[in-house]
Design goal:
Order of helices and strands: EHEEEHEEEEEEEEEEEE
Low-confidence stretches: none
Radius of gyration: 18 Å
Helix content: under 10%
Structural class: mainly beta
Mean pLDDT: 87
Shape: globular
Strand content: over 45%
Oligomer: single chain
Length: 198
């Protein structure tokens, strides 16, 4: 099994209507202290909810992203998606998850640059075992008179971390047993790039 860079990208969100936005502005996203996941790391072994763990595509992949609440429709074509997992080989030392681009540092092993490509493209910071990020974003949906759909306002928070390099991966023994994964939000540097929506 090829050693892989393992990452985690979690997403939590809320949405509200125009009247709520006018009254309250930004709305607090409810961030849990823990969340349920079938995927976990124990004693340097990565346990995954995957039927493809022994496939050539997974074995030869160079990175693995464990996700939570990420829409699969937002991944590029060269990325393999299975449930809460994303994996593949690097393309020009980089890959994309949602609106975030991860760039491997050619000079420092285990170091990555992370960028966001939403409205504007810019550098967020250096991602490694020490640096984790809590990214706050917002946007609004377009009003549709023909479908009688009112405009909605969305608040998103992403928790992005690099977990290290791993070479031992196993399929979880019992699909009915998920794990409660704790989320220590104080470990993440907050980058708030929300904007006033009109």
């Amino acid at each position: 099994m090829l050693e892989k860079n393992v990452f985690k990208v979690l997403k939590f969100e809320t949405n509200f209507d125009k009247e709520e936005y006018r009254e309250y502005g930004y709305k607090q996203v409810s961030i849990p202290d823990s969340y349920l996941s079938y995927n976990k790391i124990e004693e340097n072994i990565v346990y995954l909810n995957s039927i493809s763990i022994n496939s050539p595509k997974f074995i030869q992949s160079e990175f693995l992203v464990i996700t939570h609440n990420i829409n699969s429709g937002r991944f590029p074509d060269n990325t393999y998606y299975e449930g809460d997992l994303i994996y593949n080989k690097y393309k020009k030392s980089q890959f994309t998850v949602a609106d975030f681009k991860f760039q491997a540092d050619q000079n420092t092993i285990g170091n990555f640059q992370i960028y966001i490509d939403r409205d504007k493209y810019f550098h967020l910071g250096e991602l490694n075992l020490k640096n984790k990020y809590n990214i706050k974003l917002n946007y609004k949906s377009d009003f549709s008179g023909s479908r009688r759909v009112n405009r909605r306002f969305f608040e998103e928070e992403y928790f992005i971390s690099y977990l290290g390099d791993y070479s031992e991966f196993k399929q979880i023994p019992n699909i009915t047993q998920n794990s409660l994964i704790e989320l220590y939000t104080e470990e993440y540097k907050v980058i708030d790039i929300r904007k006033i929506l009109v």
